Structure formats: structure tokens, C-alpha cells
Fold each of these.
Amino acid sequence: MKFKQKFFDFLKTVFPATKFEFFLFLVFLSAYGILGTYIAMNYRIIFDDRIPWDAYFSFDNRAIVMTGGGFERHPLSNYFFGWIREFAMMISHGKNEESFRLVLAWCSNFAVSLSLIQIYKYLKNVIRLTKTISVLILVFFSFFTTPILLSFTPETYTYTLFFLMLFNYYAALKLKKDEPISAASLTLATVSIGGFTVTNAVKVFIPLLFENGLFKSWKKFTNAAIRVFVSVAVFALLFLYRLDFNYMRFFEKSGEQYEKFSKPRVTPLWDMVCSWFFGGNMLFSSFVIRDYHNNKGFQYKALFMEVYTSAVPYIFIALVLVLVFWAYFKNFKNKLVQVLMISFFVDIIIHCVLKFGLHTSYIYGGHFIFVVPLMMGWLFYSYKNSPKMLSFLFVTVSFLLFYLGINNFLRMEEFFTFLNQYYR
């Protein structure tokens, strides 16, 4: 009976558990589904066997679907995408055309829609916001660049967004109840999250730092250390198995990748951080088209984001960041807020300080951008007893949503112009 109850609790955590959550899930599934279905059935950009990488915004669709990506960054994703690929092939009867693309798009759509439900659950069940405020924040996030693009893109970031959001929700529930995260859950999270992107594995262990009495009891500290050791050991063994236990390949390839993706760019550092790391995952900028080839002679056009060219987008990003850090300082002693922000700082260090992939950091949003709506939720929570401040925040987010929706809708029209011209 205990196992059966845990199984049902797991299902209620992962999937919509109330009628309203199910309604929200269907709304997002339908909205993103219409977008993804139209793109998959009319354009070849989601998957073209001749285009391994960079067709739009530097996503590596074909490379990820066919191989899971490079082992040095995506150590176990080849297994997951092997299942996705086989499922899509089964539905499409072995052809990688419209129906194949459609399955890939709907798998992404399903994962992103579930991610949004996890955000709603966090806002409603962890922060305890009203339904109206929770929906406002959720809809605001749903118009971000990251969920829009990932809703039809077969990439590691798509599923990383879901697994990271699911784990953050689960960990928050555990911390609220002063319960430890089990070794099994920690191991599963490490394998799934770290398996898609190795650097994200460290985020799995952040909640452990805030378990009740961890640094006051040798017994609790030892227990936590054992749980970490078990999860890391399992992950390492699975990773080494993929490498045939030739661990030196990982260090050699990682050095090459860092050198390749961390070279200085002509664009000023501050503008790459503002326009691409923070901004590009929320608000589309203008686009630039470049000529690419697949090393076998096939020429194709690729679409990338430019930095912002007017003051308004910078003001938008600044306002959003003010809300995020306002929430952080207002709730500084809240351990759940610290978990979110430390996780966010991990990505800031990787991309903004070490400059890894900063020139295309608008594709990495699945790793961290969900922190924005959650921190907004904590800001509303801070003023739950102040009707005037709640009204002010509600109006502010509503105005931000209005601008975000118009900007991203117009930019998606430009995206479709690009598709019509080069990817029919």
C-alpha cells in the first residue's frame, strides 16, 4: 500500500492534479500544439537530414535527435533521444518527413506544457498565491522566448526545462515539510538532469544545503553525504559506461568545447549579457540571417538574434530583473528563494563570467529562465498583506505582459517570413 500511495503521489506531482490544472495544461498544449503542428507540417526546419545544426538560433535539432549531442555536455541524452527517435520513426513508418517532425514537435510541446503546470503548482502550492496572481505570472512566462521556441524544438533544453522545474517543485515541497530528499529521488534527478547537461547536475544538490539541521548534526550531514555519493556514483558509472570507461576523452573534449564556445566576440560583454543571456530568453530581438553549410556542400540559411536596437527592450529587461532581485532581497532568509537564486547564479557564472556560449546564450533558457516567474511569485508573497503593493505589482506585470506579447508576436511573424523564404 505504501508503494502504491507513493506512485499515485508521484503522478499527482508530475501531472495535472486538479481540474483547473488539467484545463491549463490543455490550453497550453493546444496553443503550442497549433504552432508546432503548423511548422512541422509546412516547413522542414524542425528536422532536415541535411542540416545538422544552427538552422535557427543555434539549436542543434538533427544532431540532438540522431545522437543526443556531444557526450561531453550531454552525457546520457543519447539514450533518451534514441527512444524519442524510435517512437517518431514508428509513427512515421520510417520516414523523417512531415509526420516525423510532427511527433518531435508534439513531444516538445508536451514537455513544455507540463513544465508550465509545474510552475503553476509551485506558485499555488508552495508559495500559496491566489489563483488569479498565479495565472497572471504563468501566462507572462508562457510568452517568453524560451517556452515558445522549445515548444516545437527537439532539443536537450526542452526536457531540461521540465526536469529542472519538476525537481525544484518536488524539492520545495520536501523543504517546506522539513523532510530530506531521498537517495532514490536524488539519484533519479542527477541522472535525468545531469544526463541532459552535465553542469546542471550541481543544481540537484543545492536543496540539500538547506535541509533542516544539516550542519548541526553529524548524523544528518553523514546521511546527506551518503545520498550525494550514491547519486554521483550511479551517474558517473552510467557516464563511464557510455565512454567505454575512457574518462580522458571527457576532459579532452571538454577543453575543446570550452575553447570553441568561449572565444571573445565583437559585441560588448555587457550587451551580450543583457540582450542574449537575460533578454534573449524572454524578449525576442531583431534577427540576422547568415549563410551556413553542412561540411558536405549543402548550403542553407541560418537565423540568429541580434542585440537590442532600441531603449525599450533594455528597459523591459531591467524592470524584470529589478522585480527578480527585489524578491531576492525581500525574501533573503527564505531557504526556498536561496535554492532558486543559487541555481540561477550557477548559470550566470557559466555563461556571463566564464563566457561559455554567451554569444548564443538565448538558447540556454531552459536551464534557468523559470527562476524569473518563481521569483516574481515570491515578490507577490512578500506583500500578501499589502493590497496597495499587490495592486501595483499586478498592474506592473500586466503591462510587462502586454509589451512582451506584442513584441514576441511580431517577431514570430518575422520568423515565419524566414521559414516561408528558405524552409518550405
Note: The two ends are 55 Å apart (CA to CA).
Amino acid sequence: MLHPDPSTRPPPRPGTRSSRAQPGSDRPAGKLQEALANAHTAIRRGARIRHIYQHPARYSGSIRDYLSQVPAQHLRVRTTELTVERLIIIDRSVAHIPASADRSTALRISHPALVSYLIQVYEVLWAQAVPLAENHQATAPNAPVTAVQHSIARLLAEGHVDDVVARKMGISVRTCRSHIARLMQTLGATSRTHPGTLLARSGSTSTSPHEPPA
């Protein structure tokens, strides 16, 4: 069954859990205001909320403003380097996925087997994602590499061009190129694929996601 974008639909029932994965690194202000109103209503009814964003969302002023207005004890947020598609699961019984390329409509799923499968997908994403408030050590004292830049380095090492890297990261090509320039300068890289090689040699998987972009 098709519905309008469920991100602004009525909040869940009392005592439920709302688990959401959101693509990209920013959202229109109007949708965030509607989502904020729904979040407050859901929290008053006893719901618990989880969000998964992509790493660049850490630097989004609109998303941080939204998160700052939701009581922290009712909201858990993590970010991931993966390219995620919108997924909303309510009370482990109903799921919504996009039903159109522009995500203006959603498919409502209530079949227990399909919902159970999507819950497992979400839990894997959640386990691999990084808590928003968590600080990671830099790869070297004098060479801080953010989580975003670490992911970009990996994608460059795989041979992806700038626009593909930007799309996978959910950021603009301009922002992506700014990260690449800073990454190459920080690591002293001599080519686009060099940062990934340098990070692999260092054996470091910990990054500093709170380092602001250029």
C-alpha cells in the first residue's frame, strides 16, 4: 500500500520504538520542523526514537538543530559511512520503504517475515554505525582524519570518481573535493588513490568524525 512520505506521518503509539535510517546529509527545513513536532508528540506518548544518518550529517546545521531540540534521553543517534536508503520501522511491526525515486511516496509493509528481515537489516546498520556523541582518536597525533575523509579515501582507492564518491557519501561534489584536498594535504598523498593506501598501511580504522570540514 502506498502512502505519502512517512517521515511526517502521525507519531507511533505509546511505548513503541521508532527506528529510522535517513539518506544524505541534510533535509529540508520544513520537513525537519514537521519531524520535530512528531518526535515531541511521540516522546510524550512514551516512544523511543533511533536515527541512523550518514557521517556528513554530523556537520549539518539543520540536523544538529533538530537533534538539539529533542530530549537526549529519548533519542539515540548514530552515523555511518554507508550509503543508506530511507527505512522506517515502527514498533517492530510495520515498516516503510521508498516507493518512488524522489521518496515522495512510501510502501507500507506489515508482513511479519518482511518486517523481521528489515529489522535485521536495521540492526546490522545500527551495530556498525558510530554514536553521534562518540569521539574517536585521530590516526596520528599530527594527522587527524575524519570519519568522512576516511570513507572518501576508501572510495577513492576503489577507483571511484568525485561525483560517484559524493553521491555515495550523500554530500555535494564541491564538499567532496574539499575533503579530498584536505585529506591529501594532511597525509602528504601524491595521488587520488594514495590516501587509501596510506591509511591501510597505518592499520588505523579509528577516525575523528567531529573534525569540521573545510
Note: Confidence is low (pLDDT under 50) at residues 135-143, 204-214.
Amino acid sequence: MKQTKTKIYDIISWISLVAILVMVILMALLDKTERTEDFMGAILILFSIILSIGSYFVYKEMYKDDKESLFIPRRYGIGWSINPNSPKGKVSWFIVVALLGALFIWLLVSSLL
């Protein structure tokens, strides 16, 4: 069951990553008006939020035994990530998603005005 949840989050993350790449390519190919740039930027941020939330739950499942350390090894590649099971890590993840959410709302509103 837990591996199924992790696989679902992985699939959602990969779909979001592909959508981000497609949006970047579309931004390069389409006519650039301020309205379309703001709207496409808002869509990019939306997929980034989905990607961040998906990675939060994947890391939360993978490192559920480690509630002390703030930094943990990345799941893919080299480097470190923030541990979502530690109290400071939860706050850090929330701040990142909240900032992305605020940026999404700002870009969406500016594209509609």
C-alpha cells in the first residue's frame, strides 16, 4: 500500500515535470505578450506547486523513521533535501509551497487584468 502511494506520487511528479517542460517550450514558441507570459508563468508555478507537494509526500514516506535531522540525502541524484518529518522541515516545506501559491495568485491575477 505504501509503495503504491509512493508510485502514485512519483507519477504525479513526473507528469508535472513534463508539463513544466512543455510549458517552457510553448513559451519560447508562442507570441510574447505580457498577458500570455503572466498566464503561462502562473501555469508553470501551479505545476511547480504540484511537484513540491508530491515530493513532500514521497520524502515523508521514505524517511518516516528520521524525525530529528533537518537535512536528508536526496532520493534521486546527489545532494540533500529538507526532511518533512522534522518540525523545522515541515515549516520549510510549508513556506516554499505558500510562497509558490502567492506567486501563482499574483501571476494569475495580473494575467486577467
Note: The first strand starts at residue 71 and ends at 73.
Amino acid sequence: MIKFISQNLEYPKACQENGTQGRVGVRFIVGRDGTISNVNVLKSVDPFFG
């Protein structure tokens, strides 16, 4: 999971420039083989994060 997050996390440029920070709630399914699917943002601090 850490590998997936580190390879797929994209911090929006607008949020970087504005210094936007906070928690983002995410729901996902981990398959038997470790694959991640059905990723959904549940709660976001900024529309650019969703």
C-alpha cells in the first residue's frame, strides 16, 4: 500500500502554491494479490484534492 501511495500520489500544483494542507479521507479495496482498486475520495480539504 505504501508503494502504491508513493507512486500514485500527486499533490496539486495549486495546493502547493497556496500552502493547502489537511487530511483527505479515502476508501479503497485491497485485492488478495495486493492490488488496489475502487479508490474513492470521501472527504477532502480542497476540491483540487478530489
Note: Helices lie at 2-8, 13-18.
